[in-house]
Each structure stands twice: as structure tokens, then as C-alpha cells.
Input
Amino acid sequence: MKLAYYPGCTVRDKAVHLDETTKASARELGIDLQELENWTCCGATYPLTEEKIANLVPQIRILRNVREGGNSQVTTTCAFCYSTLKRANRAIAVDDLRRQRVNAFLRDDDPVRPYKEQTQAPADYEGEVAVLHLLEVFRDGFGWDRLAKATKKPLNGLKVAPYYGCKLLRPPKEVAFDDPENPTIFEQFLAALGCEVIDFPFKSECCGSYLALSAPESASRLSHLILTSAVKSGAEVLALSCPLCYYNMDLRQRDISKSYPGFQHVPVMFFTQLLALALGLDEKVLGLDLHYVDVRPLLRQKNLLQ
Amino acid sequence: MKRIGVFVCHCGHNIAGVVDVKRLAAELAKHPGVAFATDYIYMCSEPGQALVREKIKELNLDGVVVAACSPTLHELTFRTAGRMAGLNPYQVEIANIREQCSWVHTDGAQATAKALKIARSTIEKVRYNQSLEPVMVPITQRALVIGGGIAGIQAALDIADAGYEVVLVEREPSIGGHMIQLSETFPTLDCSQCILTPKMVAVAQHPNIRLLTYSEVEDISGYIGNFKVKIRRKAAYVDWDVCTGCGVCVEKCPKKVPSEFERFLGMRKAIYTPFPQAVPNKPVIDRVNCTYFLKGTCKACEKFCEVKAIRWEQEDQYLEESVGAVVVATGYDTYPIANLGEYVGGKIMDVIDGLAFERLLSASGPTAGQIRRPSDGTVPKEVVFVQCAGSRDPELHKAYCSKICCMYTTKHAMLYKHAVPDGQPYVFYIDMRTNGKGYEEFYQRAIDEDGVIFLRGKVAKIFQDGDKVMVWGADTLTGRKVEIAADMVVLATAIVPSAGTEELVKRIKIGCSDGGFLLEAHPKLRPVESMTAGFFLAGCAQAPKDIPEAVAQASGAASKVIGVFSQEAMAHEPTIAFVDEDLCSGCHMCIPVCPYEAREFDKEKGIAIVKEALCEGCGACVAACPSGATQQRNLTDAQIEEMITVSLME
Output
């Protein structure tokens, strides 16, 4: 199984462990993730709020590069990158005028490579690449049964609450790969790894997102609500896929403790870290030293870590 | 040679302002076969019609062309005038020189030339017109009503009272529909059962009504006036002719299952009548849950039945009925809570729908009218009512307004307050739609006298927190987020067509509109007729509506049926397709192109025949026929050819 891999900016900075565990796990499972050459930032979601041309250029450039690299599918783990690429892809596919204009813009555009003689520009991009979240790849391409069989160290007894965040499945008509109000794909993933899945009412609530910068108290309030609800429902660890959610759930706990006395820290992990753990990969790959809230005591207590 | 009279109308300035009507009449008088041509200011006026009648008699005309407005306006007028003068009406034709000429052109000379062509081609048509008589279709003066809710009951009673027989088919064991589940009805708060049961009994006792409950319509074939209906009577495993309805079997049955009638808040037995006032008051055995059918032993009902009415070996029976018209009143269901993921899809016991709340309010319901929540039976002190749960939500659910929820939710909140005086009802709404007689006053009363708190906004999230049901919403009037720790939540779920409507529509071939509701022939002017002749619509199957509206529509549908039955036979336009039997090769080309199923293969003759009562004269089969065997009366290929030829002449 071969597909293009778009890492996204954040995984090279705040969420290195998401990237590392994704690549290592894919290698272990025999999935040929081909990292895109010369990838750029996806542009994040803000620019998509306006219907213009230039703000579709980065995503379409990325998707065109996927095609030019010989792939028809691209996967990513970051909820924001996924959303941005998928929505841009759809915008191009449904809107003739925007498609023509973005492609016109891209015809003599090559920002990464140094200037060279004009070569033949690639053919227009018309939305032909499929944008997939890595969870989708496991569900539709790889299969839960196969994933369960590949698990060398099932995470039995680990009580994990899947946290989708607000972005992964919304807006539904444009990006959802599962029921946005009552999703189950994350649960199925965790079940395949052997976890005890904990359902809780706030699995699709917003983490506070960019309010982390402009109104950190609001972000703290939301994170606190989500984390305490998960714990109240019986979770020992929160699993997620989005680097921004991760930031608001893990590092934010420092602020939460200040605002909410008595708050007990909750470990937070990327879904790919749990995957790598279940596949029995080396501890060094997991990046467990990068967490604000140390997850290692819990994993040792559960005999999942030496 | 025919003797054709041509009458050119000025229509005041409408035609004469553009077309030179005098010249037109003069030119047409010279056309071969035209015995007489004249013009007049208003041909449709009584003097104008008198002129037509006089000239027919005086000059012994055998064809008439009136060059005037569209035939939809006055074709009938002039055909009647022709008939009064002794001429076959189908020898009178309209040449439309107003809508298709004077109204759309400004150049007088060109318009006159065009009017001349239109009139000449019509003259050529009349030259070869045959004298026709309407096709008379005999009518079976007997109606089928599908669905025994309030709409079906009303329609059946109205038709039966007018003296015609009615077959009323209901798939549940009893008639009554959803209305019989309701507690009290807005805005007068009269008891639903009290006003409906007399009508149910009237149906059962009416000499003109044949009531078939626990039965389904399998198929309807034929056409208006002459339908054949196939009905399946589901096996009740009880001989209803023998059963006295004493109820001992129900009492003795040891198997309890959640009751559909009680919206699963109460229990029923495996042999049951849905509710004590059922009509007919005869039980059925639920085969899926009956211990005898599951395990082969029990038969408690049989042991205690004094009249020996239990029939274990009973099978579904198929009946055939002949009817002349059909009223479709198949009603509604509520949109399943399971589809409302944002409200946790029915996983919280104390989140129920409006119909379930009706059962809690009902004196004959599972709690005898006491408001007790399903999870632990306590009296809920704070109840949140959520409107538009699935309605007005094009993104995720139904785009339309379910129409009755504003009023019944107001009623729910009011009745809850009456039952639990120290409780607090909250209603979340998008807009309050109280457009009915006494409805706005009712809503105001709920606010002023009963202290119901109405919050304008949508509920975003509902979740369980301990023994509370947390409700997150917005109050858009104050711009604030609202959080209510409620004891119970009632969702006003969207109204959807009842289960099986889609298949029924396909089986009986009537149209469907958005949302799966039955399609009326015209949204304003023909609201109780379907697109297919002979099928009439009533109640929520056509669109969400309240009781008075459903009753009004049912009476409207009934009067349409009575109108059909008021004649022994129906006149059908004779300008339809016919087949030259010598030319038809039986190739079947015409059969699939006919939108009215009027073409049929006659095996004996080996040709495709026309079912005259069904043919609407659309011409599709005429165009499809490769051999020219199918022609349309008074619009044959030969006539069309002449019409084109004369139009192309300079």
C-alpha cells in the first residue's frame, strides 16, 4: 500500500512525536508513506474563510505535487492540514471559475526550487487527488482486523478516551469521513489496538483552538471541561490527532492547574503514539519525554512500558 | 368539400391593435373550403356566439375555425356554441392569434401574415376533422380509503354518509392513528380520545363502510372509476368473527413486551389490542414475541378463550376489491431520535419525543397521567422542550417546518405545569409559529398564566451528567449561552411520512414531493388531488398539519370522491390515440413511452391496443410508432402534413 504523506508544519515543531510515530508505525505495518518533496505550509484554516483565489494556492500546489509525484492519495495526521487540503480540493472540484484562476496562478509558479529555465508547466489540477486522514487509511485501506493482528503488544486495560476535537469531521458535507455528531472511527481504531474505549460527552467539542493565543482563559475553560469530563467518565488517557488540540490539552494543563485548584493532570497522547506502542516499537521513537504531563508512570503501571 | 366558417375576433384592441383583422377575414374567405369568413369585436360575447350559431345554421357549415385567444380559455365556449347549432363540437377549432401572435409581436404587417398562417393551418386541420363522441367510462361508485387515522376516518365517514360504499384499510390492529395517542389537543385542551372514539365507533357501525384493519394495500391497478385493489389481511391468529372481545386472552397471556402504542414507555402482551378503546376491539397475536410461536408451548390464550377463537394455523389472506376512487391518508411518523446524533441519538432514557410525552400526559397512559420520567420514575422538576429537533435543518436533517410542533410543545409545557405545579418548563424555539384560530392566544396564556419560559435559540448539545440531563443552548435574545440541568428533555422531532409511504407511492404510482410527502396536483388550486386521476390526498401524508386542517382536507378529498361518484359514467376526451390494426406489427415501441400506462399488448390480436380511459392524448406513442399505425384522433399525420404545407405557402 503506497500513498503520499503530507506532514504539516506543526509536526516539525510542537508535535515531532506525532510525525515520528506516524512514519515508524507505517514502516512497521508495511504502508509506504512517501513524504512529499518540497512541501509548504497548508495555509491553515483562516484563509479558507474568504472565497478568493490566492488563499487556495498553497493547498492546490501541494495536491498538484502529490499528483506529479505519481500518487493519487495523500494522507495527513493533523486535523487542520486535513481540513484545509480537503476543503480546498473540494472548492476546486466544484467551482469552475476558481479552478481556472488558481491553475492560471500556478502555471508559472514554483516557489521552492531556485529559479531555472521555464519548463513545461504541469497540467491543470482539477481535484483528482484523494485527501485522506490517517484514521481513514486504517479503516478503508488497511482494515481494523489487519491492524488488530499486527498489534504485538495490545494495550489491554488502558482506558482511553478518543478526542476528535471540533475540526476533524466538520463542516460535515465537506470533510466528514464519519458521522460528525456521533462518530465511531476513533473508537474502532483504539479497539483494534486493544484499548478499553471510554465514551464521554465532549469528544467533539472545541479545545479552544487559536484562543490559546488571544484568550487563553477561554481555552483553559474548554480544555478543563473536556479533560475532567473524560476522567469522570473513567478515562486514564486522552487520545487525539490534532497538534493544536494536543497543545491545548497537554501544555495548557499548567494554566488549568492555576485557574482550577485541585485539578489533577491527565496524560494526553497522539493516536499514532498509542499505535507505535501497540506495535511494540522502540520507546525512543515514541517521544514520551516531550509531554508536559508525563504519561510514562501510567504506562509503566499498566506494564506497557519498561 | 367541407363548408368551413371562419370567425376572426378583435378581442378589443388585444388582437385588432396589431393584426389587421379585416384583411385577415377577407383573405381567409378566399381559402379553399371556406364558405364564410367574418370578424367581430368580441366573439366570445353573447352576440358573437349568436353570430357563430346563426351562420352555422344559415350556411349549413360543417366546420368552424375561431381565430381568437388560447383554446384553454374559450375552446369549450365555441364548441358548446357549435353543438347548440347542431354541429359536432369536435368540428370546432381555435386558431390562437392572441397569445401566440398579437401579444408577442409589434409589427402589424408581419403579425397579420403570421395570423393568416395560423388560421390557414387550423382550417386545414378542421377540413379533415372527424365528428367524435366523448369516451364514456363507467364508474364503480365505491371508494377505498388507505389509512385509519383522523383523516382517513373523516374521509370514510363523509363518503359513506353521502350514500356510497367505502373500504377502509388500516395496517394497525385498530383505527385511530396518532390522534388516539394524544392526551389533550391544542388550543382548546379537549381530550383527544373523547372526541375521536365516537367517530371510530361510527366507522365500525356504518352500514356503508367495510373496515379492514390489520390489513395492507398490496397493489392497485386500473384507472379512475375502475380500480382493482389487492389487499392483504395479516394473520391475527384470532378468528374475529367468533371473538367477543372479552379480553381474557390478553389478561392470561404471560408474555410482556414494550408497547408501540405507549411509545415503549409501557408494556403490552403478546396477544393484544393496542389500547382499551380499540376499534375493532379484537386482539391479534404478535407472532414474533408469542411464546407458543417461539417455543412451541404455552397456548394460555387458547385455554382460556371461551368461544375458541384462537387460530394458530391462520395465514395472511388476500382480498380483491373494486373501487372507483382512492383516498390516500397514510399519515406520519416522527423522525427517529436515533438520527439526532447531536442529542445523543436516543441513548439517554430521559430524552423522549413529543408522542412519548403525550402518553405520559394521557390519563390512560403508562403512568395514568402522572408525569414520571422513564429512567427512575421520579417526577421531573425541570423539563426542557426542544423544538425543531430535525426540522428546519437542511444541513443535517429535514429542511422543512413540521408545522405543529410550536403548538403542541406549548401545550406540553402547559399541561406539564398543570400536572407538576412546582416544576419549571423551558421551551427552546427558533420562531414561534402560532398561525391558527386561537393559537396565539394559547401561546400567550402559556407565558402569562403558566409561567413557561420560552428561550429563542437552538439547543446545541444534550448530555447525561449523573442523574441530570444537561442541556446547552443559546438564548439569542440576550445573546447568552444557557445551561440547564434538566430532569427530562422532550424533543419535538420532525414529522415525516409514515413508514412504507415510499413503497406505497411506487406501487400505486402517485407523485411524491420533497421530504417524501405525497404530491398534490396543484399546491394552491388542487390541494386534495394527486397527479394521478382518481387518487385523492388527506392528512399528514401530504404535508405536516394539525387536526382541524387534516379533517378539512379529508372532507375536501371526500367531496371530490363524491363528485366523481355523482355520475354513472365519466366523459373522457376522445382526441386520443387510436391504432390501425392492419398496420400495427406489435413491436411494443409504444408501450414503454406511454406515461399513463394506456398502451397494452393484446396477445390475441398480436397488436398494441389503446386503453381509451387512460389515454390523455399526449402523442408520445404516435411519435414512437415506427409504422404510423398509431395516430391521434383529429391530429393525424395527414392533418399535420396539410397544416405544415399550408403554413409554408407564401
About this structure: The longest strand of chain A covers residues 2-5. The CA atoms of residues 238 and 268 of chain A lie 5 Å apart.
